[in-house]
Amino acid sequence: MVCLLRLHRIRPLVAALVAGAILWLLAGCAQSSRGRLSDPQTAESAESLIHRADASRTAGDLDGAERDIRQALALNPGLPDAFVAEGRVRLARLDLKGAIAQFNRALKARPNSASTWFFLADAEYQDGSPTKAFRHLNRAIALDSSMAEAYTARGHIRQMAGDIEGSLADYKRAEALAPKATTSDRDANTATGPHATPEALAATRQPAPAPPPAEKLSANLLTQHAIEHAKGGDNTHAIAELNEAIRQEPAHTGARLARARLLAQMGDLATAIADCREVIRNDPENGSAYMARGYVEGLMGALEDSQTDLTTAIRLNPKDPTAYLDRTTTRAKLHDLDGAIKDATMAASLDPTDSRAFLAMATLYSKQHVYARAAENFKEALRLKPDDNKTLNTFAWLLATCPDPNVRDGAAAVTYSRQACERTGWKEVRYLDTFSAASAAAGDFDAAIRWERKCIELESDARRQDEYRNRVAQYEHHRPIADDAR
């Protein structure tokens, strides 16, 4: 600018030549600057960083993936693939709002990307917005009518909404487009949405509509339908479909692990362990297989083996909250309460929306007599899942019987306990026992005696009947329970 301001002192022709030269140089600098921003070599480096980030995410190294994404954005701040990669990392971390924001950012720059609409649909579904997910899947299919995954996901949403005809049409279309796809093609650690894994089997008990005939489905779709049947409590159909999936593809990881979890819950621990071993034999670095085997070993009472396998699962999948939750249970059974609390705390940090982690911490703090911390975690568990009968009952028992007067609250105990009893038709004996204790803590000993006698009437175990008779005698003397142990 200084040079240009002084040009008026030079003769007009010379000034014109000088000014022209300067403007030419400035234009050259600007062009050079633009050239650096779009330098093919730099762009290629940014793309290669994104490819490496995707590989790191797939391997479970989310921190490494984020480092590569940051470097790619430093090289090319507007790269849509970087926004998509960041969204997928956030999705893996269960930061659903963050994932949605990144996918929308990518779509603003590149609105005709079918795969990005699909990822956005997955995030919206997991965030509890199936209507938005359905709309995004329609957009993805409109952009790429050969995307089998989009048809499968849309079929799942239609199935859950009761649109059986539409669901069947989408599943058949997906089958025609990708007849040999397997669940290993997708993220085996997804805990919700169209590709739910065995870890989510007991999370929801919604009745699932009947799937298409088993003989027309691939092993992949059979496994997905089996998981939906298991969620609805139809274990017979679920096992039949998983058996057929494994018959078609004996090395199908998803089917074997789903069957292992389900058989373990049904009590067939030997077959469940065999399925886990087969997966590990085929894939020794499969963290989900070690996690499933550790879970089954915990049910068998092989606690040291369970802890070893779950520790291996955490090493292989360090960001999987379910592995930490399973190890929480095993460590608690091994009387390592401090270790169990650490694992539950880690699970909660990885997935702060999972009420199970907070329920585990509440129960463990109760056992350590840290009652205020226990109450805090019970409240958080109920905030996340207010209709969970187990949490309602356990928290009510603590409030009714806690030795710490600062935590004990008979009126609140009655409120929580009543909800659990009403939800189970006043037929669950242990919930009625809690309601009796809560009534006594609130000073209503007539109700406490009446419901404790109902426990004696419904209970078939002689030892527990004696325990309940002792409580009746205690309530008759107007003495509430002042010890949280049960």
Distance from first to last alpha carbon:
84 Å
**What is the residue-averaged pLDDT?**
82
Give the fraction of residues assigned to helices. Answer: over 70%
- Report the sheet with the most strands, covering strand number, pairing sense and barrel closure: none
Measured by DSSP, the beta-strand proportion falls in under 5%
Overview of this protein structure:
The protein has 486 residues and is an all-alpha fold. Helix content is 72%, strand content 0%. It has 25 helices and no strands. Helix 13 (253-266) runs antiparallel to helix 14 (269-282), helix 17 (321-333) packs antiparallel against helix 18 and helix 23 packs antiparallel against helix 24 (445-458). The protein is elongated. The chain starts with a helix and ends in a 10-residue tail after the last helix.
What does this entry show, briefly?
72% of the residues lie in helices and 0% in strands. It has 486 residues and is an all-alpha fold. The chain is elongated and about 80 Å long.
Keyphrases for this structure?
486 residues, single chain, mainly alpha
List the helices and strands and how they pair.
Blueprint: H1 2-5, H2 12-37, H3 40-58, H4 62-75, H5 80-92, H6 96-109, H7 114-126, H8 130-143, H9 148-160, H10 164-177, H11 219-231, H12 235-248, H13 253-266, H14 269-282, H15 287-300, H16 303-316, H17 321-333, H18 337-350, H19 355-367, H20 371-384, H21 389-401, H22 410-423, H23 429-441, H24 445-458, H25 462-476
Helix pairs in contact: 3-4, 3-5, 4-5, 5-6, 6-7, 7-8, 8-9, 9-10, 11-12, 11-13, 12-13, 13-14, 13-15, 14-15, 15-16, 15-17, 16-17, 17-18, 17-19, 18-19, 19-20, 20-21, 21-22, 21-23, 22-23, 23-24, 24-25
